[in-house]
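User: Design a sequence. Structure:
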């Protein structure tokens, strides 16, 4: 596999898990020996391959507008099932049939991306992929998959893009689906969840740092900024976070979410109610990054479990009253 990867590096920019100081991160790889394929989950998600933190998208010159994206073929290797499942959410939001907008800048990158996934052998503290319906040992959401066997890997192509990536794998692509059932979901009316839950308690420790959204593989909010230099205006897309106090600040000065509990409620309901309603996907894959890294100790899994418990109690008491 090493020789094949070295060959692929001539054709693709290869992004894979590598050590950066003391952290495992998805980053561009120049030497195959730097790639780390093991049970650990990289600190940040790989979403930057399709959704860079900062990206110049267009510029406005005196008489014309030019698109500025620089796209090259990217091969993402060693992506974990929680992170490849997150791409399904990105695809739905930015390009899916149910989406109201088609984001060309996203599609340009997505079309040039090939994803080779690999499973985890076991959960890490904070992971709750299986409760979220994400199979930790396999992902159908990639172009090919690496199955660990006897200290090495067997490569299984899953799409046409993935077939033939490694020598001898020019086979008919398979498309196995994960049979897991989602156990952690919110089935309730928005009104019941929006007002009747103890959001202030859930959000108590939040300091509004935005770490949870930056590390999350499915968070995709962004801002557009225009900057002028010598008569040329450059438009840049930059990540934003619904956990920042100024996220919903209107130009007229009104801010509908001034309190941290309102912002945390938006984050949870966006993932567990609004996106499922609009796109049929839950925008949380159970990677646990937001739980492991939150300086305030907030825990989305515990929050959703508590909401489910309260909704169940409400349902039972309503049925008992009938
Ligand atoms: S929930 Fe945690 S990680 Fe997210 S903004 Fe609040 S303090 Fe930061
Ligand atoms: S909300 Fe938290 S656990 Fe869920 S996908 Fe995002 S970072 Fe992972």
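Assistant: Done.
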């Amino acid at each position: 596999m090493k020789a094949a990867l070295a060959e692929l590096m001539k054709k693709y920019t290869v992004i894979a898990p590598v050590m950066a100081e003391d952290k495992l991160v998805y980053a561009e790889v120049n030497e195959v020996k730097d790639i780390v394929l093991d049970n650990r989950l990289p600190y940040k998600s790989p979403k930057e391959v399709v959704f860079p933190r900062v990206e110049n998208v267009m510029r406005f010159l005196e008489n014309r507008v030019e698109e500025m994206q620089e796209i090259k073929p990217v091969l993402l290797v060693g992506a974990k099932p929680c992170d490849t499942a997150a791409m399904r959410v990105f695809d739905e939001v930015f390009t899916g049939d149910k989406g109201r907008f088609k984001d060309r800048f996203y599609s340009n990158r997505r079309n040039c991306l090939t994803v080779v996934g690999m499973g985890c052998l076991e959960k890490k503290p904070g992971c709750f992929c299986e409760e979220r319906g994400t199979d930790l040992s396999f992902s159908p959401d990639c172009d090919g998959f690496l199955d660990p066997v006897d200290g090495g890997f067997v490569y299984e192509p899953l799409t046409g893009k993935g077939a033939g990536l490694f020598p001898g794998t020019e086979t008919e692509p398979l498309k196995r689906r994960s049979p897991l059932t989602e156990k952690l979901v919110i089935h309730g009316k928005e009104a019941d969840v929006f007002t009747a839950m103890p959001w202030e308690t859930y959000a108590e420790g939040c300091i509004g740092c935005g770490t949870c959204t930056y590390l999350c593989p499915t968070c995709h909010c962004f801002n557009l900024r225009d900057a002028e230099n010598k008569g040329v205006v450059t438009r840049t897309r930059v990540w934003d976070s619904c956990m920042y106090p100024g996220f919903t600040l209107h130009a007229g000065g009104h801010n509908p979410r001034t309190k941290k509990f309102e912002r945390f409620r938006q984050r949870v309901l966006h993932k567990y109610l609004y996106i499922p309603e609009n796109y049929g996907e839950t925008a949380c894959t159970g990677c646990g990054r937001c739980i492991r890294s939150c300086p305030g100790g907030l825990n989305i899994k515990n929050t959703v479990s508590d909401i489910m418990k309260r909704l169940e109690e409400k349902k039972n008491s309503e049925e008992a009253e009938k």
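The first strand starts at residue 13 and ends at 20. Strands lie at 13-20, 23-28, 54-60, 65-67, 74-79, 113-118, 144-149, 152-157, 222-229, 232-239.
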